[in-house]
């Protein structure tokens, strides 16, 4: 995903400067994505990635961080933690059960 100088999103086959976004956690724990390259010229306000009620992409210079259009719910990733194997978890039909006597 990339944002051009007009604030429009597009897909890019290669990573460019327009593909860089700052991820910010808002006070309500939603996540915002702001263009790392483009801002409003006069105010310096960031351009945010946003979707309207129908799910269409909005122009970055029209999206404000306080509006629901810019709020995304983060998806938690389940991380598999390494754990030492235990003999209590080995089924009795395993080759290890032959040595248990």
UniProtKB/TrEMBL annotation:
PROSITE patterns named among the record's database cross-references: HBGF_FGF
Family in the record: Belongs to the heparin-binding growth factors family.
Coiled coil: none
Encoding gene, per UniProt annotation: FGF11
Membrane spanning residue stretches: none
Highest rank taxon of the organism: Eukaryota
GO molecular function: growth factor activity
Pfam families found in the cross-reference section: FGF
The protein's name: Fibroblast growth factor
InterPro entries to which the protein is assigned, alphabetical: Fibroblast_GF_fam, IL1/FGF
SUPFAM superfamilies: Cytokine
């Amino acid at each position: 995903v990339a944002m051009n100088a007009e604030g429009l999103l597009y897909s890019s086959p290669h990573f460019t400067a327009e593909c860089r976004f700052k991820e910010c956690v808002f006070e309500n724990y939603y996540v915002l994505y702001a263009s790392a390259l483009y801002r409003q010229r006069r105010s310096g306000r960031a351009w945010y990635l946003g979707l309207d009620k129908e799910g269409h992409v909005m122009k970055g210079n029209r999206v404000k961080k306080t509006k629901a259009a810019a709020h995304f719910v983060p998806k938690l990733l389940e991380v598999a933690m390494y754990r030492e194997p235990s003999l209590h978890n080995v089924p009795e039909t395993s080759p290890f059960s032959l040595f248990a006597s």
